[in-house]
Amino acid sequence: MAFSAKHISIEDTGFFAPVVKDYVGADKALRSFYDHEVSISGVKAAIEKRAGFKFDRQLLSNVLTAQYQKVEVHAEVQKNLSLLTHENTFTVCTAHQPNIFTGHLYFVYKILHAIRLADELSKSITGKNFVPVFYMGSEDADLEELGSIEIDGKAYQWHTDQKGAVGRMKVDKALISLIDEISLQVSVQPFGAEVVNVLRDAYRLNETIEESTFRLINEMFGRFGLVVL
User: Fold this and answer.
1) What is the bridge-based pairing of β-strands 148-151 and 154-157?
2) Total domains present in the chain
3) Does residue 41 sit in the same domain as residue 84?
4) Under a CB-based contact definition with an 8 Å cutoff, are residues 128 and 89 in contact?
5) Domain around 78
6) Are 102 and 109 in contact (CB under 8 A)?
7) What pLDDT tens digit does each residue of the chain (229 aa) get?
8) What are phi and psi of 63, to 5 degrees?
C-alpha cells in the first residue's frame, strides 16, 4: 500500500501539554523530578542503575511463557521470552487498560512506540538486548470508558450488567453483537474484513476481556516481538 510520511516535532503536533514538551526538551526547571535524561546517555545511565537489581530471570521467563499457552507464539515473541533470561536484556515497557477493540488510537501508538524504541536501542547500544513489553491494567473498573470506541465519528458502547474490574468481565452476547454492528461499517474499508476476522477470533463468548485483549494484542503485534503481561 503506497503512503507518504513526514516527520514533525512534538511541539508542532499541538497534542502535548507544556510539561511533556519541557520534559522531552530537557527543560532545566523539571530536572529535579526525574533521574535520567531523554537520550541515549540517559538510557545507559538507567541500565547501569537497573543492572544492580537482581531477580529470578528464569522464573520470569517461565511464567510469561505459560501465559502464552492458549495463543500462537510468534517466533519473535519466543525469542524475546528467551532473551529475558539473559543478564544483558532490558525491557521497554508501556501499559494501558483493556479497552474493547483497543479503544482510542493512542493505545496502538503507545505499543508501536515501545516496539520501535526497543528496536532502536538494540541497534544503538552494543551488547544489550531490549524487549518491548505491554502491561495490561485489567483491574480498571471504568466500563464507560473501556467499553466504548469511536469509528469515523460514530460512537459504540458495550452495554452489560457485569460489575467490577473490566479485565475480569466475560465476553457476552451484547459484545458479540457489537462486533456484528461494527463489521457493517468496517468490513467495506481496505483490510476491513481482516480486521473484523481478528476481532471475532479475539473476543470469544464467555472468555474474559483480559484473555480477549491478550489475544488481540498478540495477533496485532506479536510478529514484532511484543511481550504481553
Assistant:
1) antiparallel
2) 2
3) no
4) yes
5) 56-228
6) no
7) 677 888 888 888 888 899 999 998 889 999 999 999 989 999 999 999 998 888 999 999 999 999 999 999 999 999 999 999 999 999 999 999 999 999 999 999 999 999 999 999 999 999 999 999 999 999 999 999 999 999 999 999 999 999 999 999 999 999 999 999 999 999 999 999 999 999 999 999 999 999 999 999 999 999 999 999 9
8) -65, -45
